[in-house]
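Sample A.
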Amino acid sequence: MAGAAWILLAPAHLVTAGLAGGVIAATLAGIPAAGRAARHFGREDPSQVVIDEVAGQWLAMALIPATVLVASPASAIILSFVAFRAFDIIKPWPISWLERLPGGWGIMADDLAAGLCAGLLTTALTA
C-alpha cells in the first residue's frame, strides 16, 4: 500500500527513477541473498525468497510511462501485476532458460525477464 501511495504522491519525473533505483538495489542485494537462501534451504528457487518477485514487479512498473502511472495508478499497477504473474508462471522462452542460470543469478534473472515482458506489454496496452 505504501508503494501505491508513493506513486500517487511523488512528482511524475521521480516515479520512474525511484522504481528503477529500487530494481537496481533489489537486484544487487537479491543475487547473493537468493543464492545463499537456495543453499540454506537446499532448493534451486526456494519459496521463501521473494526479493526476485519484488524486483520483477518494480521493473514492470518502471517501464510504464510515469504519466500513465500517475494518471491511473490502480489500473497500471493491477495490469502490470497480472502480466508479471502470467509471465512468471508460464515462463515462455527465454524466461524459462534464464532460470537455469546458477544460484542467485537464475533466481533473479527469470523474474527480471518476466518484469521486462510485463512492463513492455503494460506500456503497449496503456500508451
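Sample B, a different protein:
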Amino acid sequence: MPLTPPDAWIAIRRTVRDCDATPLPGALRLIDLLVLLELDRQPRQAGSVAEALGIGPSGLTRIAHRLEDRRLLQRARCFHDRRGVLLMATPDGAARARTAYPHAQTVIRAGATRLRDLAGRP
C-alpha cells in the first residue's frame, strides 16, 4: 500500500527520532556524538556548529548544557567576537565520541536502510 505524503513524512521523522534516541556507548545520543565530533578537531563557535549540524541555536544550547554538565564539553567566550561562545570537547568527551563512533555508524546505516525501504514503496 503506498504511503501518502503525510504518512511518509511521519515515517521519516520517526526514523530520525528513533536513530537519535538509540543509546550509544558512553551514554551519548547521536546528536551528542555529532556535536563532539564537530569539536574533536578544534574548538568552534557555537553558531558554526549549529549551522554545520542543521540545528537551531537554542537546540545547540540545550545540547551544550547537557554535555557541559557531564564534563564532555567546555564553553568559553570567543576572543574576537565577545557575543560568541566557543565550544571545546574535553579529553573525556573526545574519547567517548571516538568510542561511540563505530556503533553510531551501525545506527545510521539501519536508519538509512529504513529510509530507502520507505522510498522504494510504491
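Observation for Sample B: The chain has a mean pLDDT of 89.
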